[in-house]
Description:
By secondary structure, the protein is mainly alpha-helical. It contains 2 helices and no strands. The chain has helices at about 5-30, 35-40. The radius of gyration is 13 Å and the shape is elongated.
Amino acid sequence: MMLPFARIGVLVVGWLAALATAALAHLLLGTPELPVLLASGG
């Protein structure tokens, strides 16, 4: 019963980490890195 919830949790954490990394890169580098991260992580 817990496996689906665990998988969803892992996906959510992964997406949040990717978004946070993209936001940090955008702030530091001033370049939109989100599409690159989504393409590499998808």
